[in-house]
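Much of what follows relies on a compact textual record of a protein's fold. Here is one such record, which you should read through line by line:
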Amino acid sequence: MNISEMLAKNARLYPDDTALIQIKPSENLRQEITWREFDERANRIANALVDRGIKKGDKVIHWMRNSTNWLEAYFGIIRTGAWAVPLNYRFTGRDLKYCADIAEAKVMILGEDLIESVETVRSQLLTIEKYILAGQGTPEDMEGFEEVIDKSSAKPPEIKLNDEDECGLYFTSGTTGAAKPILLTHKNMEVAAITEKAHHYQERGDNFVLIPPLYHAGAKMHWFGSLMVGGRTTLLTEIDPQYIFEVIDKEMGTIVWLLVPWALDIIKAMDKGELKKEDYDLSHWRLMHIGAQPVPPSLVRRWKEYFPDMQYDTNYGLSEAAGPGCVHLGIGNERKIGSIGKAGFGWKTRIVNKKGENVPQGEVGELLVKGDGVMKQYYMNPEKTAETIKDGWLYTGDLVREEDEGFIYIAGRKKDVIISGGENIYPIEVEEILQSHPEIYDVAVIGLPDERLVETIAAVIEVKPGKNLTRKEVNEFCEQNLPRYKRPRHVIFDKVLRNTTGKIEKPKMRQKYADFKNNLKNFKTR
């Protein structure tokens, strides 16, 4: 049963039950739709696209912020047999053109706040024939989302969808270079739903509080578990610790998937007394889980101090594996915090050396995963696809090691490894130590060019508000907790650059600080 069929099933079984709730706290806005309304509006979008010439295998760019409209459009697109091409709402017009040139889309569905970015490159978007705008003030040369829906049929489009049919063209977050287009199938999406349901035990009574961006192959795939069972979902469209607690209280949220920075913000607000558990009814909140990046063990330990009885899970995944879940820590395994866990439901893992041979337990190697969630291909890039998928095994590019009981620990990405004086240093190991310092809010460890050692270790540190950490104090902490060759040679006090999914943008940071030693006056080193 593909995800389109899951939506249709919920509309048949629970037509009048609430499916989606959209909350915008700053404007005191709350909207909700039932499963019947969700299903019918997706059908109307699908029929509208078919009426405008969209057919199986075509591409539709999908460029909007989180909203119920986003999900209606997404399901409408895939019901035509076309490929949804969700784009990061933080993309510039230049980014849009890059993706549009690859996708060769015929239609774009966009949010009103992105019109200006579209107009900067619109004359260069040669394949796009129609624009559908979700919002107010629709230009004369675009069509309005609600107008399109009102004029279209609510009947299901008569288009047969097979498991191996392509349905999504996802562009990677680009933390290792230019975003790569990843082609996913209906089977990939179905596997994501099954995996999530198996890992986190979603039931109809759950309310999934969905916060991260829907364009990414992350939170949406976690939500698929709720879609599968007909559980309701609350879309929180603004991010703030207080808003998160308020929504969990008022909507009786049970599951929240957070990014590391958001969890840190909640802990910081609670530490300062700005946010108090006792002011909210959080009794329904049963599970907090994190993914999209390495999770500092110190963060989870602090979280459990505030929420000792709450379930916790770490999720590992990548867009090439249809999002999260190919590896996960597992509820109840808090004793292994720091690990990403074991192979997920329906998945297999291997750890190999450069020759593709399994490494002994405890040694660092590249993580490989295998399962029905593995992407079909890097679109229009057979060479990169062949390099990444071999005999069904997906080479993730992540360096890991397996410790006792078979739990896997991240060492770093292959491109992030720092080679200093002949030693391989894995940044995540240094980051985890530094993150445990009580005055450090966020940290990124990168390699900087060095004539003698090839690279030296630099730690970019974001200090907690109100604290005044010095370089000397950082060095003393490192002397106590790190071997000499892993200690940062350079300490820079600055904001850690992260993308919208919380991942540290190390290529950008390496570029920013490349000439650090020659421009000390431009950086705070204290």
Summary: The longest helix spans residues 35-51. The first strand starts at residue 18 and ends at 24. Residues 417-522 form a domain with the GMP Synthetase; Chain A, domain 3 fold (CATH 3.30.300.30).
